[in-house]
Amino acid sequence: MDNFEKRTVVRKKDKALLAALAIFAIVVACIGIVGILLIRPNTSVTQGQADCDAVRVSGKLPGRVEHLYVQPGDYVHKGDTLAKIYSSTVDAKLYQAQAMQNAAAAQTDKVGHGTREELKKSAYSLLQQAEAAETIARKTYQRMQTLFEQGVVTEQKRDEAKAAYDAATAQVAAAKSQYDMALNGAQAEDKRSSQSLTNAARGSVMEVKSLLEDQYLLAPCDGEVSEIYPQEGELVAMGTPVMTISKLDEMWVSFSVREEMLNNLPMGKEISVTIPALEGKKTKLKVFYVHDMGSYATWQATKAYGEYDSKTFEVKARPMEALENFRPGMSVILEN
Q1: Residue 328, SS3?
Q2: For the segment 88-112, what is each residue's pLDDT rounded down to a tens digit?
Q3: CATH no. for residue 265?
C-alpha cells in the first residue's frame, strides 16, 4: 500500500471519529434538554379531609323504638318523620291524668250545685287516694334516705323521693280541704279552689300530651341519614341519640398545617385544590376558620440550636361552588 492510500485510510478514520463525537455530543445535549424540561419546581403537598356538620336526633320520651321510617343513606327534609318511640308508661300517665281531670271537673260541677251526699263521698274518696299515695311516697322516701346514708343511691335520687313525698303531702292537704268544703258547704273561696284543682289537672294532661308528641322524632334539618344507632324494638333512654343527619349542603375541608404555612392561608383566602376521588377535579375553596390545635400537635425541634418548635393549626375552607358527589371523608390535596 503506497502513501496515498495510507493517508486516505487515516482521513476516513478521522472522519468516522469526528462523526461519532458529534453524535455523542448531540445525544448529551438532548439528554440535558430533556432533563431541564423535566425539572419541576419544588412543591410541598398538604392533604386535607372533607367533612360536614352533623346533627344527632334524640327525644325527650324514653321508651321502645316502635318503627324507623328511614334508613342510612336516605335524604330527608326538615320536619320529615324519622322514627316512633312507644312508651306504655307515658300512656298510663296520660290515662291517670285524664282520670284526675275528669274527677276534678266533676268535683267542680258538684260544688257549683251545692253540697250533696255524692259530693261528700267523692271528696272522701279523693282524700283516701291522696293519703294512700302519701303513705307510699313516705315509705319510698324513708327507704331512699336509708340507702343514701349507706351510700347506695345518689343524693339526687334521695331528693327526688323527698320531692315526691312533699308533693303527696300537699295533695293530702288539698284533698282534706276539699273534703272539709264538701262537709261544710261550698263557698266562693271553695269554688275557686275547686276550679284551681281542675286547672291543675288539665295542666297535667297537657304536660303528658306534650311528651307523647315527642314519640314521633322529626328531622331538625335537611340532610342525609348517616347513622342509625338502635334497631326497631330496642329501648332508648331520654335524650339518647337515635340517628345522625349529615348536612351535605354545608361541606368543608380541614387541613392540619404548620404555623409557618399560615401566611399562605389567611382568613378569606381562596385556594386551589384537587380532589382525587372525583377524578382529580380541581376546585376553589375559601378559608373561614383558623385555630391552634393545642400543645399535643406541636412539632418538636430536632436540634438544640437553629430550630424552633412549630405549632400545628387547623385550617378549614369551604367550597366556593357546589360539587356533585363530594362526600365527607374524601381526601383533598393542596399544593403550596
Answers
A1: coil
A2: 666 566 566 666 766 666 666 655 6
A3: 2.40.30.170
Domain holding 133, by residue range, is 88-213
User: Number of C-alpha atoms within 13 angstroms, CB side, residue 110?
Assistant: 22
What are the backbone angles phi and psi of residue 172, rounded to the nearest 5°?
Answer: -65, -45
On whether residue 6 sits in a domain, the answer given is no
| Alpha carbon 71 to its chain's center | 17
Please report the pLDDT score of residue 111 as a whole number.
57
Is position 14 within any domain? no
Work out how many domains the chain is built from and give that number.
3
Residues 32-56: pLDDT tens digits? 776 666 655 555 788 999 999 999 9
Q: What angle do CA 105, 119, 124 make, to 5 degrees?
A: 100
Rounded distance between C-alpha atoms, residue 165 and residue 146, angstroms: 15
| Whether 19 contacts 27, CB under 8 Å | no
The CA-atom distances, in angstroms, between 154 and each of 10, 61, 82 are 112, 23, 35
What is the pLDDT at residue 260?
A: 84
